[in-house]
């Protein structure tokens, strides 16, 4: 509102603006060191006109509001208590000037009276120099009326400690810097309503703070009504005929407190008041300026005491807030206040934010927006008794933390005592997400979340969220479970057994290596292959080492070495056995038939050339295998829903097939040559041992590949791969080397040239007879 507008208003309200009431015992005024302003709705305009005129509204001509007069008495009672206190303002008295405030726009004269100084308003006066009539004021009732007058008080930062304006817009201190309230904002009211709705699981509700009487008139029955702070403790509506049929009414009101001494105060005031003194209508119109109440003197003390107490504590706390702030500004102690300090309105405003005191057992304090600590009660309208009663059934507090409770046992629901169902849709079962239908989010169908997803109602009940890579869930889940990471670990029993077997195998191979080296010149070692035995034993030792790469967390290096080492060196060993079998046949059967070929074979060390050739070809194939299509460590999360299997997997099996073909072909040649030499001398006949070892080799790997392709992937397939390697090595060790080691250690008489010569002679004689 501009300054020019204010001056226009001043002109319009001069007929009653500066008239000072001189009644001796008026409800509307009291002399004191510091005056407080009060605005209360002693009357209400049934229909507000929108046309603006400078003339003020005469409230006494409109509908009376008994609750407004009860509010006025609470203010008077609080002022009297403070003036009688010997500690709050010991030697300072409070006075007041109160106006009937019934219009949203046409009662500004009272506010101009409050902010005037010696009969005039000076908007540009410095705060330090300006002393308006009142130090602070409380009221008016209603947000619209408060928003209308608040800018006038902002000019001089006069504290407007309001008891009945809930609009959240008033919390904006940029626009309303001097506004303070002792009742919660409508934002807090809505939060309380939401708490009630959530408590009972409702989501299909309608809002309307004016249809209750229409509902009664139209015989609307068995509903649940939530009464806002404004009418939660209304004294007239619960007495309306037919109210008991509309259903359950739950009111939300400020924390209900008693005021000791208030009843005595009202009885005493009723005995001395003269607010209803008889005055001519013309005199009232020209002099009182909304400080007259013709019906108030007709109210009994009981009627005043039993009026709607919804805003009683708010008014009571507003007056005490002003008094405590004045106590701080005047630097009061328990004995006196510093009267040489002149309190200015803006000084009180600075102290109000710091206040924190207990009033009738309830904490009074304000946040940065000058909003109070929230303490709500939920009350049940007991219309089944006469007179109607209000029974507390729940509480809501925001300090020091949000707490909400409702006593369901006290609520007499209309449908057989059970909580009414008020939802657009039936709540989804556990593990089902909502799918919105129409415009309202509370109207939905339900859809079960698929596997590896979940619904979290605290996060978003309309979405099935996918589980993270390391998690899983069944169909219709509300949370994901952590997948167990599976691979053959060093500490598992099966792993330990296989690794111990491999270690024992290596130790045994090394021991045989040493035994053969020590007995290198003996016939048994010579017949077993001589120096070739050491290459075979070394290859088997290196092949055994590959077993240890199957255990522990798979890596790229482990995946390459676990099979590549075995395939290469085991093939070298088989190629040695093949050459050895061929060489024995050559000596006993081919030397006489193909002497030149045999001579070239011996002259050029054909056995070593063959081994070198096979080893080189096999090395090339292994290098291609490890570089073109290498085995990779992957995390298999699709085979088992609750596991992540760390395995080594090849993208293309062609190169592996080539590597395996060379090894298996060498084995086939070895079997063939061994079979051809089945009738050789016993000491040179390796057909049975080689056949046994190679058949074991083939069967083991056939079993492994069958299990790999026919069964699901698991860590046991990996362990089976390691077992297949150990079994293959054991086949050659026990069928070929252990038997020869046994002769060297336990049958030395068979490890002599003479014994071998006798065996050859017997074979020759047998051949000559055939």
Automatic annotation (TrEMBL):
<keyword id="KW-0732">Signal</keyword>
<keyword id="KW-0812">Transmembrane</keyword>
<feature type="transmembrane region" description="Helical">
    <location>
        <begin position="654"/>
        <end position="677"/>
    </location>
</feature>
<feature type="domain" description="G-protein coupled receptors family 3 profile">
    <location>
        <begin position="494"/>
        <end position="760"/>
    </location>
</feature>
<keyword id="KW-0325">Glycoprotein</keyword>
<protein>
    <recommendedName>
        <fullName>G-protein coupled receptors family 3 profile domain-containing protein</fullName>
    </recommendedName>
</protein>
<dbReference type="InterPro" id="IPR017978">
    <property type="entry name" value="GPCR_3_C"/>
</dbReference>
<feature type="transmembrane region" description="Helical">
    <location>
        <begin position="689"/>
        <end position="710"/>
    </location>
</feature>
<keyword id="KW-1003">Cell membrane</keyword>
<feature type="transmembrane region" description="Helical">
    <location>
        <begin position="532"/>
        <end position="552"/>
    </location>
</feature>
<feature type="transmembrane region" description="Helical">
    <location>
        <begin position="608"/>
        <end position="628"/>
    </location>
</feature>
<dbReference type="InterPro" id="IPR028082">
    <property type="entry name" value="Peripla_BP_I"/>
</dbReference>
<feature type="transmembrane region" description="Helical">
    <location>
        <begin position="716"/>
        <end position="738"/>
    </location>
</feature>
<keyword id="KW-0472">Membrane</keyword>
<dbReference type="InterPro" id="IPR038550">
    <property type="entry name" value="GPCR_3_9-Cys_sf"/>
</dbReference>
<feature type="transmembrane region" description="Helical">
    <location>
        <begin position="564"/>
        <end position="588"/>
    </location>
</feature>
<keyword id="KW-0807">Transducer</keyword>
<dbReference type="InterPro" id="IPR000337">
    <property type="entry name" value="GPCR_3"/>
</dbReference>
<feature type="transmembrane region" description="Helical">
    <location>
        <begin position="493"/>
        <end position="520"/>
    </location>
</feature>
<keyword id="KW-0675">Receptor</keyword>
<dbReference type="InterPro" id="IPR000068">
    <property type="entry name" value="GPCR_3_Ca_sens_rcpt-rel"/>
</dbReference>
<dbReference type="InterPro" id="IPR011500">
    <property type="entry name" value="GPCR_3_9-Cys_dom"/>
</dbReference>
<keyword id="KW-0297">G-protein coupled receptor</keyword>
<dbReference type="InterPro" id="IPR001828">
    <property type="entry name" value="ANF_lig-bd_rcpt"/>
</dbReference>
<dbReference type="GO" id="GO:0004930">
    <property type="term" value="F:G protein-coupled receptor activity"/>
</dbReference>
<dbReference type="Pfam" id="PF07562">
    <property type="entry name" value="NCD3G"/>
</dbReference>
<dbReference type="Pfam" id="PF00003">
    <property type="entry name" value="7tm_3"/>
</dbReference>
<dbReference type="Pfam" id="PF01094">
    <property type="entry name" value="ANF_receptor"/>
</dbReference>
<dbReference type="GO" id="GO:0005886">
    <property type="term" value="C:plasma membrane"/>
</dbReference>
<dbReference type="InterPro" id="IPR017979">
    <property type="entry name" value="GPCR_3_CS"/>
</dbReference>
<keyword id="KW-1133">Transmembrane helix</keyword>
């Amino acid at each position: 509102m501009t300054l020019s507008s204010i001056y226009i208003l001043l002109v319009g309200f001069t007929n009653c603006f500066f008239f000072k009431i001189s009644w001796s015992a008026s409800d509307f005024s009291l002399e004191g060191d510091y005056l407080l302003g009060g605005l209360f709705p002693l009357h209400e305009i049934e229909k507000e006109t929108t046309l603006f005129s400078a003339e003020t509204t005469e409230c006494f001509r409109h509908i009376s509001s008994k609750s407004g007069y009860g509010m006025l008495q609470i203010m008077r009672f609080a002022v009297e208590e403070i003036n009688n206190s010997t500690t709050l303002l010991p030697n300072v008295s409070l006075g007041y000037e109160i106006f009937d405030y019934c219009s949203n726009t046409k009662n500004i004269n009272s506010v101009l009276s409050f902010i005037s100084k010696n009969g005039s308003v000076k908007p540009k006066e410095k705060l330090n120099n300006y002393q308006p009539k009142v130090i602070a004021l409380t009221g008016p009732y209603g947000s619209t009326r408060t928003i209308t007058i608040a800018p006038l008080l902002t000019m001089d930062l006069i504290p407007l400690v309001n008891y009945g304006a809930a609009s959240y817009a008033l919390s904006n201190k940029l626009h309303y810097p001097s506004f303070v309230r002792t009742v919660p904002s409508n934002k807090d009211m809505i939060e309380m309503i939401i708490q009630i709705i959530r408590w009972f699981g409702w989501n299909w509700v309608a809002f309307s703070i004016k249809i209750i009487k229409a509902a009664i008139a139209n015989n609307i029955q068995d509903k649940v009504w939530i009464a806002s702070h404004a009418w939660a403790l209304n004294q007239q509506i619960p007495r309306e005929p037919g109210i008991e049929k509309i259903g359950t009414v739950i009111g939300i009101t400020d924390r209900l407190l008693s005021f000791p001494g208030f009843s005595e105060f009202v009885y005493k005031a009723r005995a001395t008041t003269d607010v209803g003194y008889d005055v001519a209508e013309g005199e009232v119109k020209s002099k009182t300026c909304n400080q007259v109440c013709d019906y108030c003197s007709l109210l009994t003390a009981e009627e005043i005491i039993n009026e709607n107490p919804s805003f009683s504590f708010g008014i009571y706390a507003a007056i005490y807030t002003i008094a405590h702030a004045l106590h701080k500004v005047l630097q009061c102690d328990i004995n006196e206040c510093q009267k040489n300090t002149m309190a200015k309105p803006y000084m009180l405003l600075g102290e109000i934010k710091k206040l924190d005191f207990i009033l009738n057992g309830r904490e009074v304090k304000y946040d940065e927006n000058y909003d109070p600590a929230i303490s709500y009660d939920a009350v049940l309208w007991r219309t089944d008794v006469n007179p109607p009663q209000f029974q507390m059934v729940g509480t809501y507090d925001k300090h020091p933390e949000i707490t909400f409770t409702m006593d369901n046992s006290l609520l007499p629901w209309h449908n057989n005592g059970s909580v009414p169902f008020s939802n657009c849709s039936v709540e989804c079962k556990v593990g089902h997400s909502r799918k919105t239908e129409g415009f309202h989010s509370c109207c939905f169908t339900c859809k079960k979340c698929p596997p590896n997803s979940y619904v979290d109602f605290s996060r978003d009940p309309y979405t099935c969220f996918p589980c993270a890579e390391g998690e899983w869930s069944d169909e219709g889940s509300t949370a994901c479970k952590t997948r167990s990471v599976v691979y053959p670990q060093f500490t598992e029993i099966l792993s330990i057994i296989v690794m111990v077997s491999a270690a024992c195998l290596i130790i045994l191979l090394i021991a045989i290596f040493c035994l053969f080296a020590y007995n290198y010149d003996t016939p048994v070692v010579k017949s077993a292959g001589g120096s070739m035995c050491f290459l075979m034993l070394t290859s088997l030792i290196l092949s055994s080492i590959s077993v240890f790469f199957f255990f522990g967390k798979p890596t790229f290096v482990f995946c390459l070495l676990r099979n590549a080492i075995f395939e290469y060196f085991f093939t070298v060993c088989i190629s040695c056995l093949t050459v050895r079998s061929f060489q024995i046949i050559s000596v006993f059967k081919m030397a006489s038939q193909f002497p030149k070929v045999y001579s070239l074979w011996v002259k050029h060390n054909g056995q070593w050339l063959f081994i070198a050739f096979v080893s080189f070809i096999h090395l090339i194939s292994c290098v291609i295998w490890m570089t073109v299509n290498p085995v990779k460590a992957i995390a298999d999360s699709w085979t088992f829903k609750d596991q992540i299997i760390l395995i080594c997997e090849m993208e293309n099996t062609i190169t592996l097939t080539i590597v395996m073909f060379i090894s298996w072909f060498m084995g086939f040649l070895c079997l063939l040559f061994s079979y051809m030499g089945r009738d050789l001398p016993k000491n040179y006949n390796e057909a049975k041992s080689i056949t046994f070892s190679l058949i074991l080799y083939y069967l083991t790997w056939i079993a492994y590949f069958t299990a790999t392709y026919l069964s699901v992937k698991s860590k046991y397939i990996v362990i089976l791969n390691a077992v297949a390697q150990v079994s293959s090595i054991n086949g050659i060790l026990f069928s070929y080397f252990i038997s020869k080691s046994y002769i060297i250690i336990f049958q030395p008489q068979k490890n002599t040239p003479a014994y071998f010569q006798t065996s050859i002679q017997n074979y020759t004689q047998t051949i000559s007879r055939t």
